[in-house]
User: What shape does this take?
Amino acid sequence: MRLSRYLLPVTKESPADAQIVSHKLMLRAGLVRQTAAGIYAWLPLGLKVLRNIERIVREEQDRSGAVEMLMPTMQSADLWRQSGRYDAYGPEMLRITDRHDREMLFGPTNEEMVTALFRDAARSYRDLPRTLYHIQWKFRDEVRPRFGVMRGREFLMKDAYSFDMDEAGARHSYNRMFVAYLRTFARMGLRAIPMQADTGPIGGDLSHEFIVLAPTGESDVFYHASWDAATEPETVDFDDADALQRVVDGYTADYAATDEKRDADREAAAGDALRQSRGVEVGHIFYFGTKYSAAMGLGVQGTDGTSVNPHMGSYGIGVSRLVGAIIEASHDDRGIVWPDAVAPYAVGLINMRADDARCAAAADDLYARLQAAGVETLYDDRDERGGAKFATMDLIGLPWQIVIGPKGIEKGVVELKRRATGEKVELSAGEALARVRG
Ligand code: 5CA
Assistant: This one.
């Protein structure tokens, strides 16, 4: 993509209304713009990141055996009356009346809708277990939307829902998601700690929040120091329930809990190794048994012919919140430092002198070769000062920068810089191409 044709409204100054670093950088780097309180437009560069995060989430959901679908954002109030949550949900639910005076709402979550859909589609134990998911916009009329996309009113969520014949099956489904989440966040360069958590308005008694430690996070968290050491999620057979349970037991052996779920005995046992911090909740998983299936009349025929209410769980990931969480975890004083897996472009190609025919020809040529090699490149071909171009590239945080200037052309080299380390090397254009292709 040529920057001369792109929409990238970067700013030098920190916006006054942004309190935390990720929010400031998202505005400064031209990723998003607020269009109403807690509601954001995704500008081209921000959308690329959002899509990359979405792709990783999707790949790991698919790998775990979940099946993708897409449910609408608009829901009917009647659906929520069936579960009894229409009145209980309160002012966070955005309620809308259509032209025929039918009561509608902008979905804050989808337990009711997916239960109704499954009720129509599943007949017997042969149709279970199933886990369905979608990636869809949600609306919650938060009292205090803040920190940009971290706590928005409109936000993108991946939500999955599992249906099993009994509790043992449901726990296996829960464990599948647990491990899928560890893999998902690790691929984004994040260390998300699974913590025992409250279930809130979703209900149920088994729940974990996946929390990325950050001083600006909204949650108070308590954990054993062993979590400070990085671990790579193990590869495990998702169909092997016992193996999966062992992995989950391993991950939950060391103490980690949100404020609401603190355990005095386990904290005493941790002793000096007890840590307190703040964190960002990037995912939340729940097992709630037959709460919705029983309330909404979802019954399937069991092996003995009687009707059984499936045991259910629901599993959320804050897809748009993750953009902010990744920036909180990966930035420096010059701007964002994107992990390779989610970076909007792999390479920022800078032509130092757009007015110099030899520089322009060399930069055009390398841009064409990068494109032919399938390397996603943002090419700063604008007629601007070199210093401003460097500052913009550092701010938007692409993993690699390649700089073409008159001195290098004389020597037959370009400069390759790694954004994360600042390390610079001079090499031929061909060698630079080989390096960024990995
Ligand atoms: N139905 C369940 C699981 S699918 C559910 O709604 N869970 S939740 O309320 O915990 O939301 C799931 C995830 O969405 C959270 O872990 C968080 O990462 C994200 N999220 C929740 N509220 C917001 C918000 N206002 N802005 C941005 N992300 C949010």
About this structure: The chain has a mean pLDDT of 95. Residues 3-336 form a domain with the BirA Bifunctional Protein; domain 2 fold (CATH 3.30.930.10). The radius of gyration is 24 Å.
